[in-house]
Amino acid sequence: MKKTKLSERYHQKAKQIIPGGVNSPARAFLSVGGVPRYIKSAKGPFIKDIDGNKYIDYVMSWGPMILGHTHKNIRLAVQKALKSGASFGAPTVAEYELARLVKSIYPAMQKLRFVNSGTEAVMSALRLARGHTGRDMILKFDGCYHGHCDSLLVAAGSGAQTLGVPNSKGVPADLARLTLTARFNDEKDVERIFKCHPDSIAAVILEPVIGNMGLIKPREGFLEFLRAITRKHGTLLIFDEVMTGFRLAPGGACELYGVSPDIVTLGKIIGGGLPIGCYGGSLDIMKNVAPEGGVYQAGTLSGNPLAVAAGIAMLRTLIKNKDKIYPALEEKGKFLEESMNAIIKRRGEKIFVNRKGSMFTIFFTSEEPVCADCAKKSDTAKFSKFFHEMLNRGVYMAPSQFEANFISYAHDRQCLDKTVKAFSEALEAL
Ligand code: HOZ
Question: Is residue 145 flagged as an active site residue?
Fold first, then answer.
């Protein structure tokens, strides 16, 4: 067992003044039990907590640390930017540079706007889709999580799913009524909904590869189907690539699957882990955004110089080394998947390792989950025990069955071997 005295002490104190002691429910360990680790520092593939424990990290700040924690290029860029000022509330050349970098990789974004988080990006994208089409309805997928904006806290994944509040209190019923939900990977369900509302849906939004219900992949042809049906009905297609952008490929799922949505949203990844997000689309759609058009959206910290500096360093490093980094991420993911599968097979366990590139989830079910209902069949009690067995062996995985794990470029063979050994021992101990 790891020492957790200090984390426990601070968690008790934090709970007195912060709801649940945490600033985001997904990190509260509620579904797995035990005390959330209070993190002191992180480097490469490792995090250290205030009790002195060191873990191989697969949360990686929920995705953005593709290069590993505290990467030198990003650290130096932020230090340099800070010397010139932390925030101006006025335009900078660096914002233009970052926009150019994102656009060079994401052709679907002919113009884009920086905001402060993935939630803000999605919230703004929805307003834009409604403003552009003059329609109010939104179609999302059961289990997809797009941040905590009102319209999308309906049948949501991530912490909302874990805590059993996929439909949050406080969301006006009149607004929730405008959010329709379909089963992921179910073309008939989507067709049925369009049949009922042929001319009223402003946008279909999805995580093209779901990370917030555990990892769920789109079936072959599903994204193409969505592209075609949205075009037919004059509905915009929004890819929420907050987790997958610059991770599955430089151009995320858009590049990997060759499907071009109308609007893309990105988050923490384009700031190397600092608070940032962006949404973008064609010139015709983006001309609606204020001050050019009538869809209002603003923010003092939007395009913050520190986040932008980190983002430029991150994207330049990724783009410059893409021929090395992306095949390596795939290799690392494949190694973990194959090694775990060999152990699962040998032991005859009902476990499914679902992986796409450097994202994966270990489901305690024998079949590949293809939708939220399938994912919910996983044995979450067993997952919780497994999670703690891994943690005790120094491997920090996402503290919920309904989240994805992330491998970074810094996870070397030694880390991966240790993870596989811990996995084998953890199953033995269950
Ligand atoms: N929504 C994030 C996971 N899908 C968790 C955010 C956090 O707790 O930091």
Answer: yes
Structural domain of 175: 72-320
195 assigned to active site: no
Residues 132-191: tens digit of each pLDDT: 999 999 999 999 999 998 888 777 777 776 666 667 888 888 888 899 999 999 999 999
Query: 268, 326, 356, 409: which one is catalytic?
Result: 268
In this structure, the answer to whether residues 342 and 308 fall within a common structural domain is no
Number of Cβ within 10 Å of residue 259's Cβ equals 20
pLDDT of residue 165: 62
Is residue 268 among the annotated active site residues?
Answer: yes
- Comparing CA positions, the residue from 250, 276, 249 lying closest to residue 265 is 276
pLDDT of residue 164: 61
Which pLDDT score is estimated for 349?
97
Helix, strand, coil percentages for the chain (3-state, nearest 5) = 45, 15, 40
- Burial class of residue 73, CB neighbours in 10 A (0-12, 13-18, 19+): middle
Ligand 1 contact, 360 CB (< 6 A):
no
- Do 286 and 382 sit in the same domain of this protein? no
Q: And the tokens for 197?
A: 């509302």
Please enumerate in sequence order all residues whose Cβ is within 8 A of that of 255, keeping only pairs 6 or more positions apart, or say none: 105, 248, 249
Ligand 1 atom closest to Cα of 62?
Answer: 3
Q: Report the separation in Å between the CA atom of 96 and the middle of ligand 1, taken as the mean of its atom positions.
A: 28
Q: Which residues of the chain have pLDDT under 70?
A: 161-166
Average pLDDT along the chain? 96
Asked which of 304, 320, 336 is the last residue of a domain, the reply is 320
pLDDT of residue 2: 87
26 lines ligand 1 (CB under 6 A): yes
Whether ligand 1 lies within 6 angstroms of the CB of 255 is answered as: no
Q: What is the CATH number of the domain that holds 162?
A: 3.40.640.10
* Domain count across the chain: 2
User: What spacing in Å lies between the alpha carbon of 409 and ligand 1's midpoint?
Assistant: 21
Among residues 284, 305, 320, the one where a domain terminates is 320
53 and 198 in a common domain: no
* Full-model pTM: 0.97
Contact 353, 386 (CB under 8 A): no
